[in-house]
Amino acid sequence: MIESSLSYDIMNTIGQILKNARAGKDYSLNHLEGITKIKKDFISLIEEGRWEDLPPFPTVLGFVKSIAGTLEVDERIAVATLKRDYPPKNLRINPKPDVSRKFTWSPKLTFIVGVGVVFVLIFGYLAFQYIRFISPPALTVDSPAENQTVVGGNVLVFGNTDVDVKITINNQPVLVDNDGKFSVSIAVVPDTKEIVIQAISRSGKERVIRRTITVRPD
Q1: What is the mean pLDDT of the chain?
Q2: What is the CATH number of the domain that holds 207?
Q3: Model confidence over 125-172: pLDDT tens digits?
Q4: Does residue 3 have a pLDDT over 70?
Q5: Cα 210 from chain centroid (whole Å)
Q6: What is the residue range of 174's domain?
């Protein structure tokens, strides 16, 4: 140790002690940073006693010990002086447990969640109805099959669609039951090459299925 513990002025701050020791060794902040791996900004803040700009006390204590060891300053004096100089923290102390942040299910929360669920359901229903309104109706045709050969003068046409949809088959209106099913026997002749099934929704959207057939006389 280049200085005895008795040679330190008890009125000096820890920052002054370390700064004087650094000056005595002719160490620049950059040089001391390279040795201790502590940023020179932190070293400067310690020397200036700007504790509010430094990390928490345990980190500062580690810095001071490392710097004191490098500068051959008595670690016991350095630590004691630091504890004397370091200001107490103004901590927010609540003598009672903070229970306000604990989750509790309240009637107000029940009301909010209920309103939210109702809103989501209503919005979802309206969105579904709107999409359904602007979309072409569903339409499936089970008979006739594509390229089906029809023997005789009639072909059975049946399938499914949405409720409240208008169905025409080769421009002939066809009734749709409450389940969206339709079935009708359509007259055909040997020149009939195609069955056209058209579904038109209330919004005017349409879907068309065409089935090619071959008609053979009995």
Answers
A1: 86
A2: 2.60.40.10
A3: 888 877 877 888 999 999 999 999 998 889 999 999 988 899 999 999
A4: no
A5: 46
A6: 139-216
Gap between the Cα atoms of 28 and 71, Å rounded: 12
- In which residue are the tokens 């919005």 written? 123
The conformational region for residue 111 under phi > 0 = left, psi -120 to 50 = alpha, else beta, is: alpha
Assess if residue 121 is contained within a domain.
no
| Tokens 């007259």 -> residue | 187
Q: Please state the three-class secondary structure of 123-182 as a single string.
A: HHHHHHHHHHHHCCCCEEEEECCCCEEEECCEEEEEEEECCCCEEEECCEEECCCCCCEE
Number of domains in the chain: 2
Using a 10 angstrom Cβ sphere, with 0-12 exposed, 13-18 middle and 19 or more buried, the burial of residue 160 is: middle
And the tokens for 181? 């099913």
Cβ partners under 8 Å of residue 113, min gap 6: none
Q: Does residue 2 register a pLDDT over 50? A: no
C-alpha 71: how far from chain center? 52
Task: Name beta bridge partners: 210.
Answer: 196
CATH assignment of the domain containing 42: 1.10.260.40
Least confident range of 1-5, 88-92, 199-203: 1-5
